[in-house]
Design brief:
The chain is an alpha/beta fold and 309 residues long. It has helices spanning 13-22, 62-72, 84-92, 153-163, 182-189, 204-207, 238-251, 269-276, 304-307; strands at 4-8, 29-31, 34-37, 47-51, 54-58, 76-78, 114-120, 123-127, 172-176, 193-197, 212-215, 227-232, 254-262, 281-284, 292-298. It has a seven-stranded mixed sheet, with helices on both faces. The protein has a four-stranded antiparallel sheet with strand order 2-3-1-4, covered by helices on one side. The longest helix is centred in the last third of the chain and has 14 residues, at 238-251. It binds S-adenosylmethionine. Residues 150, 152-153, 177-183, 197-200, 218-220, 233-236 line the site of S-adenosylmethionine.
Length: 309
Amino acid sequence: MIRSAYLAAEGLEQPLLLELERKRVDIAAWHGRLALSPDPPVAAAWALDVWTAPEEHPAPSVKAAADVLRGIQRNWSAYAAGQHRRMALIADRLPPVKARKLRFPEPPPSAHLGAWTLLAPDRLLLSAAKTSPFPNGECRFEEDRAGPPSRAYLKLWEALTRLGAWPEPGQTCIDLGAAPGGWTWALARLGAAVTAVDKAPLDLVVAAMRGVAGLQESAFGLEPRPVDWLVCDVIAYPARLLGLVERWIASGMADRIVCTVKFQGEADGGAQAAFEAIPGGRLAHLFHNKHELTFAWSRQTLSPRERAG
Ligand SMILES: C[S@@+](CC[C@H](N)C(=O)[O-])C[C@H]1O[C@@H](n2cnc3c(N)ncnc32)[C@H](O)[C@@H]1O
């Protein structure tokens, strides 16, 4: 019996597999990028989406499969790992789900969404509940191809969208590892006052944006100072980033933190577990992440005792 299913991002099945092994979750089989488990669902940072209530149903015909799905709820997204034609025929019989691209800043879709696939022509696997509000965890935006100097801003947009919060006009941000300036561009466009810290120079257009101040120095040498948002996209070993994040949290100077944690080769399970253990924090693989996870932390989610340190 399948009791949970974990969807890996393309090419990132291995770190998900290692994470699930570490969390003692058995994998009975892979269906494309979907790891099928007989164990109850657990939080898995490397999964783009987790199917938390899987059910197997016989699907002797296209109509029978569609009837099962429609009988449960309205909104479904399909994950296909084969059986493409048959799945398209089933999808044609379901109410359309508009996966509109988001216009940042706006909240993620709130409509309840399930997921389904065909394990075989006559075997339907569905889950009425899943962790991501996006089809197959794919959070897509209307991109700005003219403004930002790199596409890295999409990671920050996605992280902020998932948080359901972003800097308000006049709030302060420190952007560590800011060059060439995609994240700084995104923050400045929200009307925030951004201090962009990098050893490398910032793109000149971003440096000239209203509210942007550049600081050409190391992110690791910067003493914590009061700030609404600390964001960090520095390329560094996870253990070193962990030290930086812990130092800022202990200082009590930042209200919120968003930090990319980049892994080389095999993911560093120890560092991942240490980030996961930070109270008030969340670690996730975003659709726009490559071989990296994004750590998001908020002081507001801490209990008064934790806040007092
Ligand atoms: C992936 S890029 C950041 C991209 C940026 N977020 C954007 O949107 O354009 C990583 C940056 O980290 C910077 N970096 C690496 N080590 C650093 C350090 N010790 N202090 C400050 N910046 C550092 C690099 O110079 C590089 O610009």
